[in-house]
Structures are given as structure tokens and as C-alpha cells.
Amino acid sequence: MSIVAIVGRPNVGKSTLFNRLIQRREAIVDSVSGVTRDRHYGKSDWNGKEFTLIDTGGYVIGSDDEFEEEIDKQVELAIEEADVIIFMVDVETGITGMDEDVANLLRKAKKPVFLAVNKVDNSKRAGDAVEFYNLGLGEIYTIASTNGSGTGDLLDAVIEKI
Ligand code: GDP
Ligand code: MG
């Protein structure tokens, strides 16, 4: 079964989207050495096409450097493991340095990447979201994980690649 990973820095809404999309939650603590943060795996489907969804992230305590290193590790693991990557960013905060860092890693990946701009709850935020074209990852998908808005278009695009 194809694997779709959701990556991005903490608090952008990855787990909210994951929980909305999966049918049955299977929490798995990754056993890869050095990667101790939790990765949650779940099964999902869209238009009859099934896939495994991974929610990356977890508990990061430490300095900013450690923090960034951990996110990079999760992204690199996702690039290895996943067939398709959803890179989530947050329209509330706009582009951050960490987003640029992740975008640089993903631009080198030979996997399809979909840029999901989350927390687009109103039309003003839909306007603000265009800023994310500056990440250089192509099309943006504006979504609101809390109510599911925009997620259909995102999933339509994702399943075309799996
Ligand atoms: P994660 O750290 O990336 O997994 O982010 P979470 O899923 O834990 O969400 C972080 C915060 O953002 C929570 O307070 C969510 O309720 C909030 N959030 C997630 N999606 C949305 C959204 O579409 N709109 C708004 N306004 N808040 C959201
Ligand atoms: Mg989370």
C-alpha cells in the first residue's frame, strides 16, 4: 500500500489533519535508531484508493538547534519511506525559517510533494496564503484541518500520484 507522510514544523496542524483522515489509529513508536519521536500510522482512503498515512512529529524538548535537527530527521525519514509527502505550513504565522529549511530538503527529494497551507478559515487568510508560493514548491493547497475545507482537492491531487 502506498504511504503518504505529513511533515512540517510543530503546531501547523499535522495531527489535526491526520486524525480527520484516518479510520483506525495505530500508534507506533519508531524503532529506527536515533529516531525516538513518535510517528503515527493510520489507514485512510479517498475515492476508493487506500493508503497508509503517517503523522510525523512528537515531543521535542531542547535547544532550537536540537529542535531543527529533529524536524530535519523526520523529513528525511519521510522522504525515504513515503511515496507522497504533504508538507504542511501555517497561514497564521506565515513562512518561518524552519519552513524554508524543510522546503530546501523537500526540493531535493525525488518524491511528489504537496504544499498544504493550513488554517485557511476565511477569505482574508486565503489571500494571505499566496505568500507560500515563495517556498518554490509549486502549487499551494489551502486547507482548514479543523473543518476539512480544501482537503478534498488536496486528496484528489495526492491519490493521482499513488
Ligand atoms: P501539529 O503539531 O502540527 O500536529 O499541530 P496540531 O494538529 O496539534 O494543531 C496545532 C494547533 O493548531 C491546535 O490548537 C489546532 O486546533 C490548531 N489547528 C489545526 N488546524 C487548524 C485549522 O484549520 N484552523 C485553525 N484555526 N486552527 C487549526
Ligand atoms: Mg502533532
UniProtKB/TrEMBL annotation:
Binding positions for GTP 1 per the UniProt entry: 8-15, 55-59, 118-121
Signal peptide: none
Segments forming domain EngA-type G: 2-162
Domain of life (superkingdom): Bacteria
Family (UniProt): Belongs to the TRAFAC class TrmE-Era-EngA-EngB-Septin-like GTPase superfamily. EngA (Der) GTPase family.
Assembly description: Associates with the 50S ribosomal subunit.
Reported function: GTPase that plays an essential role in the late steps of ribosome biogenesis.
Protein name in UniProt: GTPase Der
Species, as recorded: Spongiivirga citrea
